[in-house]
Design brief:
By secondary structure, the chain is an alpha+beta fold. The protein has one domain. The chain contains two helices and four strands, in the order ββββαα. Strands 1-2-3-4 form a four-stranded antiparallel sheet. The radius of gyration is 12 Å and the shape is globular. The chain starts with 5 loop residues before the first strand and ends with a helix.
Length: 80
Amino acid sequence: MAHEYKVMRSINTPDGGRCVDVFMRPDGSFGFDEFRRDVEDPSGWFPIGGHMGRIFNTEQEAFDQARASVSWFGVQTGQQ
């Protein structure tokens, strides 16, 4: 993710292999995406969700859409 985005929430799977970040852009809008990392690859996190360009007015809207859009995340947070 670009450094100018401020991560507001980052929720990982129990095994630490995937996460969802809810972030705020410099213009004050919010978004989210799903990321993965491979233990054997020291490069770090890679976006895999394709949600980076979605725009929301509030952090809560972005979080709620992340729960609805990323299957494991909705299950983990008790929503589907």
